[in-house]
Amino acid sequence: MNSPPRKPEPLIFELSRPGRGATAQHPAAEKGGEVPAGYRRRGQVPLPEVSELQAVRHYTRLSQLNFGIDTHFYPLGSCTMKYNPRACNALAMLPGFLGRHPLADAATGQGVMACLFELQEMLKHVTGMAGVSLTPMAGAQGEFAGVAMIRAYHRARGDLARTEIIVPDAAHGTNPATATMCGMKVREVPTLADGDVDLAALEAALSPATAGIMLTNPSTLGVFERRIVEIARKVHEAGGLLYYDGANLNAILGKVRPGDMGFDVIHMNLHKTFSTPHGGGGPGSGAVGVGQRLLPYLPVPVVAREGDRFRWLDERDVPGTIGRLSGFMGNTGVLLRAWVYMRILGAAGMRRVAEYSTLNANYLLVRLAEAGFEAACPGRRASHEFIVTLKREARELGVTAMDFAKRLLDHGYHAPTTYFPLLVPECLLIEPTESETREELDGFVEALIAIRREAVADAAAVRAAPHTMPVRRLDDVRAARQLDVAWKPAAA
Amino acid sequence: MSEIPADLRYTKSHEWMRTLPDGTIEIGITDHAQQSLGDLVFVEVPEAGRHLAAGDACAVVESVKAASDVYSPLAGEVASGNPALGTQPDLINRDPYGEGWILRLKPSGSGAAAESLDATAYQAAIAAGG
Amino acid sequence: MPYVPHTPDDVHAMLERIGVNSIDALFDEIPPALVVASLPGVPDALSEMEVSRLAAERAAADGRPVNFIGAGAYEHHIPAPVWALVTRGEIYSAYTPYQAEASQGTLQIMYEYQSMIAGLTALDVSNASLYDGASALAEACLMAVRAHRRSRAARILLPETVNPVWRRVARAITEGQGLKLDSLAGDPATGRIDPASLAAYAGQDITALVVPQPNYFGQLEDADALTRWARANGALVIASVNPTSLAVVKPPGEWGDGGADIACGDAQPFGVPLSSGGPYVGFMACRMEHVRQLPGRIAGRTVDLEGRPGFTLTLQAREQHIRRAKATSNICTNQGLLMSAATIYLALLGPAGLERVARACIARTAELVAALTQLPGVRDAFPGPRFHEAVLRLDRPAAPVLAALACEGIIGGHDLVRDYPALGDAILVCATEMRTRADIDAYARALGRLLGRAAAA
Predict the structure, then answer these.
(1) Hey, is the C-beta of A485 within 8 angstroms of any chain B C-beta?
(2) What would you measure as the largest C-alpha separation in chain B, in angstroms?
(3) Which end of chain C is more exposed for a tag (fewer CB within 10 A), N or C?
(4) CA pair distance C204, C235, nearest whole angstrom
């Protein structure tokens, strides 16, 4: 299981030598360009001094320490790690799009605005909503926009008592965090063992204080909320609105539309469902869609078409808007990548996303169940993802979901999502996506079977995994107790 | 199995209380609580002089995987927060009922909280899945 | 089937293993009335070749005009290695580094980025980026309210010399949490905040004062005086700064007698192209005493089981996925890809290169202002020291002038009439190291013709 340790890659600062520099990148020296004395920075800026090759080699080597979709199967539940088509990057970075200043006259932006308008329209139609704003820069910002619009709706009607947002206990942490950011109170309702929301508890939670409910469908347990139409009716009857967390849109893209389910506002994660790159943590894009009721509150700006010209709508055009969420118009480069993806997929391709992601998930679920792994919601179809609980393995073999996850790395797979949702003990949330071949899925099953066998033979070895990665398991307690989050030059 | 000293009182939210000779109430979190949080990396204790109502969040305990509020079981004025926890949050892991005390409170009401549990009742509450 | 690899054999074998006859059967838990048969409004598929042609036509239609706008997004030379490196699949297609052992590349880049931002701002710690400068300002205001124990008012003084869009975003984002953002007027003669104007707030409970540097007009504020006032009045200082300027302008950590508490801004100038508006990359740094209130992701250095140095996400208990309703913010993503670009940019520029870029920007903007104010009808609005932007007053409404310049391939500046009507007919202009003497002369000639032509009519 062991392999020789690699020499750790130094910090860029440790490669620095005084007087070195990538001088091809330096503009010519200026005679002028001085800052007046009272405003001037004293001393040299603390940046590393390295050659261009040193920098290129350093960051190339660092990249080689990573797993990415381009290199590894990455079945992270709820993250939709599908292939990021290279065409999306190449076309989004065409010079005409790339070099354009966002505040340049709209006459010089008709090309990019045409793409963004088409994206708005395609997202509208694929989700069954009445309007779309592309400005939120991430899923969490999309959520914020959604809850803020719900709040604005009730306030506009003078209904100031509606301050509660209902959230299932299985929800992603951003949901209650968002509700709090909008000054709302969170009311949790339980989820039943079969994965559906507890309808009786939901009814008990509805009141004149209900502003709305935040739901993901399929839910974070990987199953479709079967009584969604009824839930929507009850919430609307109680005077609340429905918010759709689009994290799991991949499961139903092109087959079911959130607008048809009764949702009043949705956010989409373009960096999940629409293949834009995760980039080691971002950028995302959290476009929002709304039904008729919430159209007046959309965040601005939004692209409109007037004849054959495109124009940005702003606060003057949408006086009830919840406002601006970004310095300009959202993550345009990400939006262009999503536009390319949707144009290449077309209508039929959207539907195939739901079909083949669901096929892959159900195939994996059946193979793992046959191999003796325990599904969290047995008897239910997987959506595009499903949960396996390793609580029995934890009890009988002393090997946890975390240990399985770390050992999977040694087998050449990025681990699935672990310990989310919080409701299921020792869980792995597995989402293969539609990008993967049957052989890749079979290999993953074989790896999990092998790890369980290893756990029977030598549990301690599995608990000490990973063994073959650039580092062994890291001490996160020490990281928090002895906080070292910035390199400082040694005191002179 | 977690330790539950018989001479203390407890709350459903996993705090314990001890009456000190001078009448102040010493408060901390139980062994069960520190086990489920894991190695603590940070503790925020309340300032002396702060007034608390029963049920107020008065301290925060943070591990790498969770952060929890500590709720004051009683109303009163904070006499002191444990100064050692600033540099040694792990005292709570090592000695939750002794050196890992979190705050000392001058109670404003009658003293014992009406809804506190004895050791047996707290044991039962944990077993029931508290 | 683009991006879907299944052959009919695959499908057949998989369905058989699952025990159903068709893929549709896998959706049998969904009420049939919800399943749509078609997607009206979504066009048919195009091949990559066809989309490439369409995209190329549209990008070409937008052209490559010469740009003289800053206003929060700045055009700088991006060294070729930056995007060659960040579009490597291991960086581009990697996820958030939750499995640290499989993400040491991302985590070390985050740590290096944090170190560089902390060093540039002369503060103790930085996070691993936020969405953009506007939302970073909003998050800084929320952070100041959390961090300032003694202040009850949740009241932030927000100067009108701060980017007006950023101020609107800060309002939109903080509104739900009961913050009061009070407008602080600038001095119309200087285009800066007059420190004496703060006397009106003496003795009041002010949680924080935002100090831009440079401000939206490109003017350098008296950051030392403003910081001293804030300290004396028990308020925290939030610095909203241009990152390139930090190479030559006194950084927030050295303002006044004790420095600012929080610094934020947009690091787009570091290796991130204008790209029609985004994605950009917000930064935030602070003093060590406030680190637990810092929103967003943070990478920390530690060791592994064998004592080898390594990196992992830390202080996560503040974040949404653990604290849920009590999180410091609902923030989930950082701008990993752009943060990586910024880190590589700074490694390539180094201290000497960044200083040269900053000085070139100052020099080019001075040349631009000199060239344009030679024309009758064009005046420099503010006399004080500036970084790389200026406000020019015109003798007629700016919009038609800018539109006419655009027809000639020149993006002449940003019309200030909507956000600053009191300035009259004024534009905000910027010249970075990308603008040559020839660009500036061409602009002056074009503007001279436009203004001269109209005057003669």
Answers:
(1) no
(2) 38
(3) C
(4) 10
Chain C hits for B41, CB-CB cut-off 8 Å, are 317
Q: Do C278 and A102 touch (CB under 8 A)?
A: yes
B39 lies within 8 A of chain A by CB: yes
**Three-state SS annotation for A34-99:** CCCHHHECCCCCCCCCCCHHHHHHHHHHHHCCECCCCCCCCCECCCCCCCCCHHHHHHHCCHHHHC
Distance CA A275, CA A278 (A): 9
Name residues whose C-beta falls within 8 Å of residue B45's C-beta, 6 or more positions apart in sequence.
B59, B81, B82, B83, B85, B86, B102, B103
C317 touches chain B (CB under 8 A): yes
Instruction: Return the half-sphere exposure (C-beta side, CA atoms, 13 A cut-off) of residue B91.
Output: 16
Test A476 with B64 for CB contact under 8 angstroms.
yes
Handedness of CA C138, C139, C145, C147 (dihedral sign): negative
Enter the CATH code of domain A87-345: 3.40.640.10
Q: Do C326 and B67 touch (CB under 8 A)?
A: yes
**CATH code for the part of the protein at A353-478:** 3.90.1150.10
Fold of C80-344: Aspartate Aminotransferase; domain 2 (3.40.640)
Residues of A with CB below 8 A from C331's CB? Answer: 138, 140
pTM: 0.94
Which of B42, B45, B64, B78 should be substituted to probe chain C, the one whose Cβ sees the most C Cβ atoms within 10 Å? B64
Cα gap A178→A286, rounded to integer Å: 13
CATH number for the region C66-75+350-456 comes to 3.90.1150.10
**Domains of chain B in sequence order:** 9-127 (2.40.50.100)
User: If residue B17 lies in a helix (H) or strand (E), which one and from where to where?
Assistant: strand B15-19
Measured CA to CA, the distance from residue A445 to residue A455 in angstroms comes to: 15
Domain positions in chain A are 87-345, 353-478
Q: What is the pLDDT along chain A (492 residues), one digit of tens a residue?
A: 344 456 789 999 999 999 999 999 999 998 889 999 999 999 889 999 999 999 999 999 999 999 999 999 999 999 999 999 999 999 999 999 999 999 999 999 999 999 999 999 999 999 999 999 999 999 989 999 999 999 999 999 999 999 999 999 888 777 888 888 888 999 999 988 888 899 999 999 999 999 999 999 998 888 889 899 999 999 999 999 999 999 999 999 999 999 999 999 999 999 999 999 999 999 999 999 999 999 999 999 999 999 999 999 999 999 999 999 999 999 999 999 999 999 999 999 999 999 999 999 999 999 999 999 999 988 889 999 999 999 999 999 999 999 999 999 999 999 999 988 878 899 999 999 999 999 999 999 999 999 999 999 999 999 999 999 999 999 999 999 999 999 998 754
Can you name the residues that pair with B52 across neighbouring β-strands?
B76
Asked if residue C62 lies in contact with residue A96, where contact means CB atoms within 8 angstroms, the answer is yes
CA torsion C365→C367→C372→C378, rounded to 10°?
60
